[in-house]
Design a protein that fits this description.
52% of the residues lie in helices and 1% in strands. The chain has helices at 11-17, 84-87, 95-106, 113-116, 124-151, 161-187, 194-204, 208-214, 220-243, 253-274; strands spanning 2-3, 6-7.
């Protein structure tokens, strides 16, 4: 049948020309899992590749925190040398540690001070030993001269130069001599830690504290004996502790130890002439 331009088909003709599909129930189709990979775009621009990193310093000695410190690394390179945090571990000692090291300095012939302080040398003890020496030298010298002038009914004037001179001698000696010895040992291929040398020389001066206290005795021969004994003990303490360390220098170790010994004795002579000579 035709109606206009459209053609209509009878239902019986459609059913005869197209086979009917029987309903066989729902069929479930399963797909196997597929491994999908995501590739970055080939034309990525304006981005830093993942493998690129900023260059690191070749030497980060001063950037690392000191041993035993819980502080995070700091930047600054060699400028870290001037930071207080760099020297904090060298002042982290207990009173018992300082007392044990002072006892070692009073028994110089043991020669075990360097071994005991090799892992944790400190600057706390040397600093306060030098400071105490300055105070004792100035106070005893001032007290003795005051009593002498009062007994003789003379006018007494405080000598400020005694403090400045004592500070220059003790602080200068414990700083310059270890630095010079550090260079010498490095030249002879027997290097030692610089802080270790500061520690050794600082504690070697402790014997002069009781020696200065005994110098108030108004006997010149007694003062010479006290100065000589103190100088010998201090020199033996330094020399014997360094002798065991610089054995690797061969036969030249004797010259180094002899120089150290004589230099320490020279210090005691200077102290006798300028600090132990007090007239009453």
């Amino acid at each position: 049948m035709m109606s206009g331009k459209y053609t209509s088909l009878d239902n019986h003709q459609v059913s005869e020309s197209v086979p009917a599909v029987t309903d066989q129930g729902h069929t479930t189709v399963k797909f196997s899992d597929a491994n999908l990979q995501i590739f970055p775009p080939s034309g990525a621009q304006g981005k830093i590749p993942a493998g690129s990193h900023p260059p690191r310093d070749a030497d980060d000695t001063f950037s690392r925190p000191a041993a035993g410190s819980d502080e995070p690394p700091q930047s600054g390179g060699w400028l870290r040398t001037f930071a207080l945090a760099t020297y904090k571990p060298y002042f982290d000692v207990d009173t018992s540690d300082v007392l044990d090291r002072i006892k070692e300095s009073l028994f110089p012939f043991r020669g075990s001070f360097t071994e005991k302080t090799a892992e944790n040398p400190d600057l706390y003890g040397p600093f306060w030993i030098c400071t105490t020496l300055i105070f004792v030298a100035a106070s005893i010298g001032t007290f003795v001269t005051y009593i002498a002038n009062k007994l003789q009914k003379k006018e007494w004037n405080y000598d400020i130069n005694l403090v400045t001179w004592s500070a220059g001698v003790f602080y200068g000696y414990v700083t310059v001599v270890p630095l010079a010895l550090y260079v010498v040992l490095k030249y002879f291929s027997a290097p030692s830690g610089l802080v270790q040398l500061f520690c050794l020389y600082g504690y070697s001066l402790f014997i002069f504290i009781p020696a200065l206290c005994l110098s108030v005795v108004p006997l010149e021969i007694f003062r010479w004996v006290i100065a000589g004994v103190a100088g010998f003990m201090s020199a033996a303490f330094v020399a014997l502790n360094l002798k065991a360390h610089i054995n690797s220098a061969g036969e030249r170790w004797f010259l180094i130890v002899a120089g150290i010994f004589l230099l320490q004795l020279a210090l005691s002579v200077v102290l006798k002439l300028y600090l132990f000579t007090v007239t009453v």
